[in-house]
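Q: Hi! Curious about what Rrf2 family transcriptional regulator looks like structurally. Here's the sequence.
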Amino acid sequence: MRLTQYTDLGLRLLIYLASTPGQSASLGEIADAYGVSKAHLKKAAQAMAANGLLETRRGKSGGIKLIRDPATVVIGSVVRLLEPDMHLVECMRPNNECVITPVCRLRRVVHEVRAAALKAFDSYTLADIVGEPEQVAQLRELLDISP
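A: Let's find out. The predicted structure is below.
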C-alpha cells in the first residue's frame, strides 16, 4: 500500500500547523520548510479547509491555520479525505478488466490489508503524531519555525 504525494503533503501540512498552535502560516513558508511545491500544498490545504480542518485567509495578513484541536483530528479520516481512490489492485477498480477476477482471491486479501491499514491510521490523532512538547520543539527546529 502506498499513499500518494498529495496525502503525504497534506499530513505534513497538518503536522506543521499543529506544531504552531493558534498561529497562521503562509503556504510559501510551509512549502519552503519542507522543500516542496506550493501548488501541491495548496490543493491539499483547500480540501482540508473545505472539510473544516483549516481556515484560510487571503491577503497581506492571510495564511492558513489549523482550526481543530489536534487531539480530535483522526489520521484515518484525513487519509480517507485525501486518498479517495484506495483501489490498490485492478480488481478493486469500478471498471475492473482483470480476466481472473471470478476465481481470484487476491481481492479479498487486499481488502483485508486496506482495512487493517485504515484501522491503524484510525488509532492515531494529529496530536499523537506531533508528540509531546519536546518533540514539537524538535519539529519546530527542523522546520526552521521561529518560537
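A: A fun detail: The chain has seven helices and two strands.
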